[in-house]
C-alpha cells in the first residue's frame, strides 16, 4: 500500500458483535449494478481515532458522528462490499501545498496549555468561538486531511472507482486561516492531487453553507469548476455564494453558485440538482468529480434551514455516481448527529448499490436513534419553504445560461511533470489584483457590479446568533 495506507481488516470483538447482533437486519440486498453489470470498486477510509476529538462543551461540531456512521456501515454489513483502508496523517509539507507556512506552523504549535502565549495571533488566523483551540487540534486536522489525500490517490492509482472519506469535506478553511469549524481544507488538498492527472475536476457542494474556502482556492482557474448548492440570504454563514460570483480571470464562468432560500423541499432540490449537474457534466466534461455531502442540508439539522430527507440527499450521490467518472465522496457539515450518521450510512449504501433495510442494525450506539430506530425518519416540512416556483425557474435559467456560455470544455495541455498549479493560482491572482481601481471586470451577463473576488467577512457560523434548533447537543 502506498504512502503508508494499509488494508483495514475488520476483525475482532467489534465486528463479531456487530455481525452477531440479535437485532441485525436482513442481509444487504443489491439494486441492479448499472449498464455494465459490475458494481463499482469503492474504497472506504476510516480512522477510528478521529471521532475521539472534542471541540468543546456545547460546540455543535461533534466528530463523534463519525463513530456512529462507521458503526452503521459495519452493522449493515457493508464492509463486505467495500475496500476498507486505514488512513495516515497528512504531513506538514502536504498541508503547505495549499496552506501558508506560518498558518501550518501555528496549528502545529498551539495547544490548550500554551494558548495564552499565542492569543495575539488568534485574530490573524481567525481562531475563536467557531474555531477554538482544543486538545489535538493539529493531529485531528492531519488525520482527516490525510484520509482525503489517500482517497484521492486511490482513485488516481486506478485501484478504486469511488473513494469515500466521511471525516473530510471541511470546506471553509482558507489558505491562512480557520473558518466555520474547519482548520485544514482537505478538499483543496485532494483536488490539487487529482489535478496532477486529471485535466478538469468538478467540485460539488451539497452543504447548507456555501463552499467558500474551495471556491476561493480555485476562483481564478478553469481547471476546477466549483458548484455550490446552499442557503443564501446575505446574512447566513459565510455570507458568500451569490449567483453573481462566477470566477475571475481564466476562471471566469467556472464558479457556479446556486443560492437557495429557506426550507427547500425534496422534489424541488432533486430537480434543480439534476438539471444543473447534467449541464455541468455536458459543458465542462470533467474527468473526475469531488462531491461534498454536508448533511446540514437535511431537515431538522441544528444549524440548517432546509427540509431535505435522507433519501433526497442521497439522490444527489446516486446521480453523480451514474456518470461513471472517478468519484471522491466526502463529508462536511451536519450537527444533528443521529441524522448525519443515518445519511452517510445510507449514501455509503448508494455507492455500493445496496438496498438497505429501513430498520437500523443494533450497534453500541443503538439508543441514539430512539424512538424509531429507522434509517429514514421524517425530516421534511419543519421550516416554511421560501423558494417559489418562479424563483427556482429564474435561478435555474440563470445558471444554465452561464454554463451554456462556456461553449465547450477548456482544453488543457497536460505535461509529464505536474504543473505548479499553486504557483499558477498565485500568479493569476497577482495579475488580477494588480489592476488599477478604474479597471472594470466584465461579468458573464455584462453586469460589472460584481466584485473581483467574493467578500470574505469574518463571520461566526454558530456563535453569531442563536441558530441551534436542537436542545440536545449530542443528538
From TrEMBL:
A divalent metal cation binds at residues 207, 209, 296. Coiled coil: none annotated. One of its GO terms (biological process) is epigenetic regulation of gene expression. Gene3D superfamilies: Histone deacetylase domain. Residues 59-350 form the Histone deacetylase domain. InterPro entries: HDAC_I/II (IPR003084), HDACs (IPR000286), His_deacetylse_dom (IPR023801), His_deacetylse_dom_sf (IPR037138), Ureohydrolase_dom_sf (IPR023696). GO terms for molecular function: histone deacetylase activity, hydrolytic mechanism; metal ion binding. Its EC number is 3.5.1.98. Residues 1-36, 406-475 are annotated as: Disordered. GO terms for cellular component: Rpd3L-Expanded complex; Set3 complex. Residues 437-448 have a biased composition (Acidic residues). Signal peptide: none annotated. It catalyses: N(6)-acetyl-L-lysyl-[histone] + H2O = L-lysyl-[histone] + acetate. Belongs to the histone deacetylase family. HD Type 1 subfamily. This is Histone deacetylase. It comes from Tieghemiomyces parasiticus.
Amino acid at each position: 500500500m502506498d504512502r503508508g495506507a494499509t488494508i483495514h481488516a475488520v476483525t475482532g470483538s467489534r465486528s463479531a458483535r456487530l455481525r452477531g447482533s440479535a437485532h441485525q437486519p436482513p442481509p444487504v440486498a443489491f439494486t441492479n449494478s448499472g449498464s455494465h453489470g459490475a458494481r463499482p470498486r469503492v474504497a472506504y477510509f476510516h480512522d477510528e481515532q478521529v471521532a475521539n476529538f472534542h471541540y468543546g462543551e456545547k460546540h455543535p461540531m461533534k466528530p463523534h458522528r463519525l463513530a456512529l456512521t462507521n458503526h452503521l456501515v459495519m452493522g449493515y454489513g457493508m464492509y463486505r462490499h467495500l475496500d476498507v483502508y486505514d488512513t495516515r496523517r497528512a504531513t506538514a509539507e502536504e498541508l503547505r501545498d495549499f496552506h501558508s507556512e506560518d498558518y501550518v506552523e501555528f496549528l502545529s504549535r498551539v495547544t490548550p496549555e500554551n494558548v495564552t502565549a499565542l492569543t495575539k495571533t488568534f485574530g490573524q488566523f481567525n481562531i475563536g468561538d467557531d474555531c477554538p483551540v482544543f486538545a489535538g487540534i493539529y493531529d485531528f486536522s492531519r488525520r482527516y486531511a490525510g484520509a482525503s489525500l489517500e482517497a484521492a490517490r486511490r482513485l488516481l492509482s486506478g485501484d478504486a472507482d469511488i473513494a469515500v472519506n466521511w471525516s473530510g469535506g471541511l470546506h471553509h478553511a482558507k489558505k491562512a486561516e480557520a473558518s466555520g469549524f474547519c482548520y485544514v481544507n482537505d478538499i483543496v488538498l485532494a483536488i490539487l492531487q487529482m489535478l496532477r492527472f486529471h485535466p478538469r475536476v468538478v467540485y460539488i457542494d451539497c452543504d447548507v453553507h456555501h463552499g467558500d474556502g474551495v471556491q476561493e482556492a480555485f476562483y481564478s482557474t478553469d481547471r476546477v469548476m466549483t458548484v455550490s448548492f446552499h442557503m443564501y440570504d446575505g446574512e447566513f454563514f459565510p455570507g458568500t455564494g451569490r449567483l453573481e460570483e462566477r470566477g475571475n480571470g481564466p476562471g471566469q464562468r467556472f464558479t457556479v453558485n446556486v443560492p437557495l432560500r429557506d426550507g427547500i423541499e425534496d422534489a424541488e432540490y432533486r430537480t434543480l440538482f439534476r438539471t444543473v449537474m447534467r449541464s455541468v457534466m455536458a459543458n465542462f466534461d470533467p474527468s473526475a468529480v469531488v462531491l461534498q455531502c454536508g448533511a446540514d442540508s437535511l431537515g431538522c439539522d441544528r444549524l440548517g434551514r432546509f427540509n431535505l430527507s435522507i433519501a433526497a440527499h442521497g439522490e444527489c450521490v446516486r446521480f453523480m455516481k451514474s456518470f461513471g467518472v472517478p468519484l471522491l465522496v466526502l463529508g462536511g457539515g451536519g450537527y444533528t448527529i443521529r441524522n448525519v450518521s443515518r445519511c452517510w450510512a445510507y449514501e455509503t449504501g448508494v455507492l455500493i448499490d445496496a438496498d438497505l433495510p429501513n430498520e437500523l442494525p443494533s450497534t453500541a450506539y443503538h439508543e441514539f436513534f430512539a424512538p424509531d430506530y429507522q434509517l429514514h425518519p421524517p425530516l421534511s416540512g419543519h421550516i416554511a419553504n421560501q423558494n417559489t416556483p418562479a424563483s427556482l425557474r429564474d435561478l435555474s435559467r440563470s445558471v444554465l445560461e452561464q454554463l451554456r456560455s462556456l461553449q465547450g470544455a477548456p482544453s488543457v495541455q497536460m505535461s509529464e511533470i505536474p504543473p505548479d498549479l499553486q504557483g499558477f493560482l498565485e500568479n493569476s491572482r497577482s495579475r488580477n489584483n494588480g489592476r488599477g481601481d478604474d479597471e472594470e471586470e466584465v461579468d458573464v451577463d455584462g453586469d460589472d457590479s460584481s466584485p473581483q473576488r467574493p467578500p470574505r467577512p469574518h463571520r461566526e457560523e454558530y456563535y453569531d446568533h442563536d441558530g441551534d434548533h436542537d436542545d440536545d447537543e449530542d443528538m
